[in-house]
Design a protein that fits this description.
The protein has 286 residues and is α/β, with parallel strands linked by helices. It has nine helices and seven strands, in the order βαβαβαβαβαβαααβα. Strands 3-2-1-4-5-6-7 form a seven-stranded parallel β-sheet, sandwiched between helices. The chain is globular.
């Protein structure tokens, strides 16, 4: 059955690949992004030319923008079957070097942006007793690497929100699940970041931090240039989740080919322990 699928952050990267993947499958795709008539006009035009695709202006950091976009989509199509929360921004730097407003900016997009869109779409899905929400998290929402702790924390927060609400929504006919990409070279790397910029902090950490930074740069440069995992894997994972029978979708779908299977192993082990821990409290129905 063809579905109405709304995707945030669709101008480039995973979002644009998802738009193309779902449109090719014949679904009605609502590709959302900011600035469709200005900064992102070329991307909007390219995606809007695809079959079964509409481009809608939506800024996940703006309450009115989210409300108006969701309202317009529902008025035209009468439903939203699938929401894919993909919009996000990256940030790097030593944690002490961040100002609180900078961390708030990261969270405004990566966390509050997801909640804004969810809170507009969920009433529609609950009324229909049906719906799927797929949120793009990250492997660094499970393990926190140095020099990007603020970004990692935003993904950890997403993991907590989605894991907790996953069970809440089951009785409403709605499934809310996560995709956890590993390291992929997408446009998020080249776009504007929210980097730590408190003057002098990074330098005060001295040679040891510089060594860590250099090593991480070497590792990820090698990953992106030699292994170069295909970002299409994330769009394919989203398609599999949409095509999976309701009630059989996993809470988490890790996609990190560079880990050589450790991502899946980690997820399986922690999920088994999570269930036993919950059962220890007698919460066996969760």
């Amino acid at each position: 059955m063809k579905k109405v699928i709304l995707i945030t952050g669709s101008s480039t990267g995973f979002g644009a690949l998802m738009v193309r993947t779902f449109a090719k499958e014949g679904h009605m795709v609502i590709a959302t992004m900011r600035n469709v008539k200005s900064k992102n006009a070329q991307f909007a035009e390219a995606l809007g030319a695809l079959p079964n695709t509409e481009v809608v202006d939506l800024d996940v950091t703006d309450d009115a923008s989210v409300k108006n976009a969701v309202k317009a989509v529902y008025a035209k199509h009468g439903k939203i079957d699938v929401l894919i929360n993909n919009a996000g921004i990256y940030g790097g730097g030593v944690l002490e070097g961040y100002t609180l407003p900078q961390i708030q900016k990261l969270f405004d997009v990566n966390v509050w942006g997801v909640l804004r869109v969810n809170n507009e779409v969920l009433p529609l899905m609950r009324a229909a007793k049906d719906g799927l929400i797929v949120t793009v998290s990250s492997q660094v929402g499970r393990i926190s690497l140095p020099l990007q702790a603020a970004y990692n924390a935003s993904k950890f927060a997403l993991e907590g929100f989605i894991e907790g609400s996953h069970t809440e929504l089951m009785g409403q006919g709605v499934e809310s699940v996560l995709i956890e990409p590993g390291g992929f070279m997408t446009e998020i790397i080249s776009k504007a970041h929210v980097n730590a910029d408190r003057a002098g902090i990074h330098e005060e950490y001295g040679a040891k931090l510089a060594e860590i930074q250099q090593h991480m740069q070497e590792v990820f440069t090698k990953l992106f240039t030699e292994a170069a995992p295909d970002p299409q894997l994330i769009a394919d994972a989203a398609l599999r989740l949409v095509n999976t029978e309701k009630g059989k979708r996993p809470l988490r779908t890790p996609v990190d080919p560079s880990s050589k299977g450790i991502d899946v192993e980690y997820n399986n082990v922690t999920e088994e322990i999570r269930k036993r821990w919950i059962s220890a409290y007698g919460l066996v129905k969760i």
